[in-house]
């Protein structure tokens, strides 16, 4: 059986950085499931524009699942705000989640060779996708700390943004992701909560490695 680390949490909580570092250190495969949802929303926006149509969304999800290539997840356009907002909307449909669940489940249980385990990050990995994960972490931080990080990240990429706008968009998206009835962003009962508001990425990584070791996961 493959070792699985499930990392959930809201956007800009530091979960992606942590997931990537853990996967590299442990030689595990890594899947950014938010990017999978974003890939669906990105091609949806290109073909159908900003109006929501469930049948079209389902079609795009099937295309991404059936022709999955991890390279598409590196497309910088997936990070744009209109894609983020569309992702948050499309990901609230059960029909779309069910299609992508299969992809995520397969990745977790049969990670690409030679990885002996998988790290997945998202919103419902510990609750829905991998309820039997070896280790479940819920990474979070205050909305202000997360908005500050996201503003810096975008500005470093040369994108001109204002903190107040980032904070507003983030709060809006958080609310939708947290209050939706299907797979809301919530920690699993057996998840360990890591609040990263006052921690550096290195602190979070060290803490997570310690927790992984306690579950028998070592490099
Ligand atoms: O983590 P992120 O910001 O890349 O996620 C983008 C959106 O996708 C976010 O609004 C929530 C949604 N998402 C989801 O519903 N389930 C996941 N497992 C991952 C992301």
Q: List SSEs in N-to-C order.
A: EHEHHHHEHEHHEH
Provide the list of bound ligands, each named once. 2'-deoxycytidine-5'-monophosphate
Spatial order of strands in the largest sheet? 2-3-1-4-5
From the N-terminal CA to the C-terminal CA, the straight-line distance is 17 Å
- Domains (count): 1
Tally of DSSP β-strands = 5
The CATH architecture category equals 3-Layer(aba) Sandwich
Strand-residue proportion = 5-15%
Shape: globular
CATH superfamily: P-loop containing nucleotide triphosphate hydrolases
Given as residue ranges, the uncertain stretches (5+ residues, pLDDT < 50) are: none
CATH class categorisation: Alpha Beta
CATH topology: Rossmann fold
Radius of gyration: 17 Å
Helix content: 40-55%
Description:
It is globular, with a radius of gyration of 17 Å. Helix content is 53%, strand content 12%. With 219 residues, the chain is an alpha/beta fold. The chain has a five-stranded parallel β-sheet, sandwiched between helices. Helix 3 runs parallel beside helix 5 (94-109). It has one domain (3-212): Rossmann fold, CATH 3.40.50.300. 2'-deoxycytidine-5'-monophosphate binds at residues 11, 33-35, 37-38, 84, 87-88, 91, 122-124, 173, 177.
